[in-house]
Every structure is written in structure tokens, then in C-alpha cells.
Amino acid sequence: MTTKVHFYSYFKELTDCAETQVELADGSTIEQLYTELIRRFPKLAAMNHSTLIAVGVEYQGRSYVLQAGDEVSLFPPVQGG
Amino acid sequence: MTTKVHFYSYFKELTDCAETQVELADGSTIEQLYTELIRRFPKLAAMNHSTLIAVGVEYQGRSYVLQAGDEVSLFPPVQGG
Amino acid sequence: MKRELTISTEVIDEAKLVAGRTMSQGMGAAIYFAGVVRAAEGKEIIKAIDYEAFEVMARHQFGKIFDDVEKRWPIESVRLVHRIGVVAVNEASLWVEVIAPHRGEAFAACQFIIEEMKRVVPIWKKPVV
Amino acid sequence: MKRELTISTEVIDEAKLVAGRTMSQGMGAAIYFAGVVRAAEGKEIIKAIDYEAFEVMARHQFGKIFDDVEKRWPIESVRLVHRIGVVAVNEASLWVEVIAPHRGEAFAACQFIIEEMKRVVPIWKKPVV
User: How many domains does chain A have?
Assistant: First the structure.
């Protein structure tokens, strides 16, 4: 299963990347995706506790099981206003 | 001592009067003025607990001792906005 | 703290007031409250409210409220307009602007001004049926 | 509840937005909040803030906040404008209007919208020095 991942705000600078794709076994969770992303982009590791994760337009927790076609977004705390 | 008294809002209708003058002994309090006003305008009596009293532009209590030249205003609870 | 108080029979031109805002570069929040005459006062349907003010005392009491605001919060500016005379349904009788560094104090000060006004400023309403 | 959400790079014309207000005859309170870019972010002096949004998610999350507002308070209308891109110091990045029968619910809903926005709506700031 291929999962598309988007980065926002300074996560794009940490990863030098706005968008990437990760190959995962069916039934993988966001936690597993996140582990792979940290391997690929080690600077994300320091942000572990302040990383927000959405699937599509909804926030999801680390135990969420990814479905085919899910687009995942990773970003730091929001700051609108 | 002559004290000028102003009425506002529906107190003008209760008294049929916007302004009156009361002759009082020197050293009289607002309480004494109020007693005289109720004698003159009996409909004010029913408003006793919701009457606000100002001397000039400041609120004053019933024990305030009136000075020569004081102008007193009586009115119901305020309702700005 | 800058303060501007208007008590007037003229229609409150909110758009013009907003367009005339000045705000220094340290300020981050502007709050506006417009109080508008409603068609129903209790169960009665009304056409307007006739506002009466004991104006010299109203100005003095507003001044004391603004003094309190200045003591409590780092507000840069308050502008307040209260209309008197007949104000038709759907027209504003009260307009308040508070400018502050942050929204917390702007909201707090704006609500304080309105609550205090309703407690001490000698202005009264009479429904016009 | 009427709702109008704008996320745009254009300057927020507050006077025009206020002039375009519609309000039914049962409504007595209109609250406005304008969030304005300050010259100092922390100790740094800045020229502007560059706002980035994950727009489709931002619209969805604002929609959920408006749903919550509608459940909690008898609000007639919410209009919200968030500017994105480079917003200069002294310009508004956020504008919120809440129209309600009384001021209590208008103030409460307006503050709730801003607090929830700062918690869940994916918009980020980057200072421009």
C-alpha cells in the first residue's frame, strides 16, 4: 500500500520536502508510518511530542489503521489568528 | 437652604414634573429631602427601593448631608445600551 | 489610554468609525460591540426605543469607567458612542471599540465597559410602540 | 445559523464587511474581532507575518467549530475571514463577526471560535523580518 504524506509549516524545512510517498504493509498504523518517516527524515524525531497528524481533513491518533488512498498530513501546532 | 431636584425617565411622569425646589433646614440629609419629596409626590413612595440618587454627577447615599448649591437627581435603575 | 466618547442623536455610522481606526504597531486586537434595537421588548412588539440621558452625569460616569479600564488592563484606546433620542428597530444604540495588545484584555475590557455602563450610566429606555 | 468563511490573500476590508451586515429584527448584538499583526513577535521586530494554511482541512475544521457554535448558542450568523500569505504589521489577519439576540452569547461564541481556531485549524505563521 502506498501512502502519500504531506508536510506543512516548518516541517517542510525539517524534511526539505512538501510531499512524499511511503510504502507500507496493509493494515499499518500511523505509528508505523511515523517510524518510517523518522528513519527517512531524522529531524522529525525531535518534534515527536508536538507533531499533529491528520488523515484527509480529520485529526487521527497514532493507532489509526491506514486505508488505501489515505493522505496523511504532518504538521506542528497550529497558530491561526 | 433651597435645593433643586431633577427627575429623570418615568420619575418625571410619576411626579408630573422634571424639576422642583425644596426648602430644607441647613444640615439636612438626602433622607430628609426624600421624605419631603414623597409627601409632595406620593407616587414616588412605591419606587423607594429602586430609586437612585445623585448629587451633581455622583451617586450618594441617603445619609449624605446636603450643601448649599447641591443639585439632586432622582431616577429609576439605568438601562443604557 | 486614548478615549473618545460620543453621546448624540445621530445615526451611528459603524463602517466610518471602523475605517477611522488608529492603532499603534504594538497592538494586536480590536474588539467591537454594536448593541442594536430589537423588535421585541418582553412580549411587546416595538418600533423603536427612545433613549434619554442625564448627559453631564453620563459623561462623568463613563469617564470613571474608562479610568477603571485604564487601571486594570493595558488598553491603548476606547471609543464609545451612545445614541440618544428615538432609535429605530435594527439600528445601533451603542457602539464600543477597544484596542489592546492581545484579545484577552480586549474582550475583558469591552465586556466590563458594557456591564458597568448598565450599572451606573444614567441613560434610560422607553419603548416606542 | 448563517455562516460565511473566507480564506484569502486579499486585504480584509473591515469597513465594507461591517457595511454589508444583515441582521434580523430579533437580534440585539453584533460582536467583531479583528486580529492585527504586531510589530514585535517575542523580542524580534518583524515587518509582516506570512500565513500558510492547509486550506481544505482548515475549511473543514472551521465548519466543525461553527457546528459546535450552532449547538451551544442561539447565534444567527457568523462571518469569518482569515487572510493568508504575507500580512504586514498593522493589517488584520483575522476578522470575526457574530450576531446574536444578546451580548452574552455573542461574546461567548466569538471567544469560543477564536480559541477553537487556535487549537485545531491548520494555519501557521512565519515572521517576515
Answer: 1
3-state secondary structure of B74: strand
Helix (DSSP H) and strand (DSSP E) numbers for chain C: 3, 9
Of D54, D61, D93, nearest to A81 by CB-CB distance is D93
- Beta carbons within 10 angstroms of residue A19's beta carbon: 12
Domain range for A70: 2-75
Per-residue pLDDT reduced to its tens digit, C24-52: 999 999 999 999 999 987 788 999 999 99
Radius of gyration of chain C (CA): 15
Which residues of chain D lie closer than 8 angstroms to A9, CB-CB? 52, 124, 126
Query: So what's the pLDDT on residue A44?
Result: 97
Q: Which partners does chain D have (≥3 C-beta pairs < 8 Å)? A: A, C
Cell of B70: 447641591
Q: pLDDT tens digit string along D62-94?
A: 999 999 999 999 999 999 999 999 999 999 999
User: How confident is the model over C96-126, as pLDDT tens digits?
Assistant: 999 999 999 999 999 999 999 999 999 999 9
The chain A residue lying nearest D120, using CA atoms, is A78
Surface of B (20-49) touching C: CB under 8 A = none
CATH code of the domain in which B67 resides: 3.10.20.30
Q: Do C34 and D30 contact (CB within 8 A), yes or no?
A: yes
Per the domain annotation, does A21 fall within a domain?
Answer: yes
Does residue A65 belong to any structural domain of this protein? yes
Regarding chains B and A, contact by 3 or more CB pairs under 8 A is answered as no
Q: What pLDDT score was predicted for residue D41? A: 72
Q: Residue A81 domain-assigned?
A: no
